[in-house]
Amino acid sequence: MKIWLSIFSIVICLVTPCTWGQGLDSASWAVEVSVHYRVFPNITYLTADGYESKLDVMTSRVAQQALPTLVYIHGGRWVGGTKESSVLRTLPYLEMGWAVVNVEYRLARNALAPAAVEDCRCALSWVFQNAGEYGFDPDRTVLTDGLWRSTTTSSLTRSGGSSTTKGTKVAVGQESG
Question: Fewest C-beta atoms under 10 Å: which of 64, 125, 140, 165?
Fold first, then answer.
């Protein structure tokens, strides 16, 4: 029993510094992110049928001018997914100096079509209406859902636009993968 206790103690002593080192890397990354970026979570951009559709805004703390803006709509073909599940996909855009708006919409189980498309159009309108407050550049806005050949961005671009977005050029991007 004493031998096992001794071996266990030695293993703990050898492993613990490695664990601390990994914790420090995560902690330094978290500090780095909090120093360079601002996050405005769960902003309600639309209330419909008692459901609050929300979005998150992530932007640079040190931006000197309006930033190109990515409007990211999570995948799920209108029936699944969450904006929270897509956060990591937006990090490369933040690192490139973009602002990111991560959009949630009513899923089909909460509201029938075309509710999700209408929600996303409202989110896009919200981006243009709040460009000054959050430092978005409305002339450099990209709409994507991160899926190749998806229905999300094609539905939004075919459905016209609200009075706020009509006449505004919005690039539609689709990542492969």
Answer: 64
8 A C-beta contact, residue 62 and residue 37: no
Q: Is residue 164 helix, strand or coil?
A: coil
Q: Residues with Cβ < 8 Å from 104, sequence gap 6 or more?
A: 53, 54, 55, 74, 82, 83
- Condensed to tens digits (0 to 9), the pLDDT of residues 72-83 reads 988 767 777 777
Q: Which element (helix H / strand E) includes 153?
A: helix 151-158
Per-residue pLDDT at 75: 72
Percent of the chain whose pLDDT exceeds 90? 32
pLDDT given for residue 177 in this prediction: 40
DSSP 84-143: GGGHHHHHHHHHTT-EEEEE----TTTS-TTHHHHHHHHHHHHHHHTHHHHTEEEEEEEE
In whole angstroms, what is the distance from residue 28 CA to residue 26 CA? 6
The structure tokens 């859902």 sit at 145
State how far the alpha carbon of 114 is from the alpha carbons of 28, 84, 118, 135, 159, in Å.
44, 22, 6, 30, 10
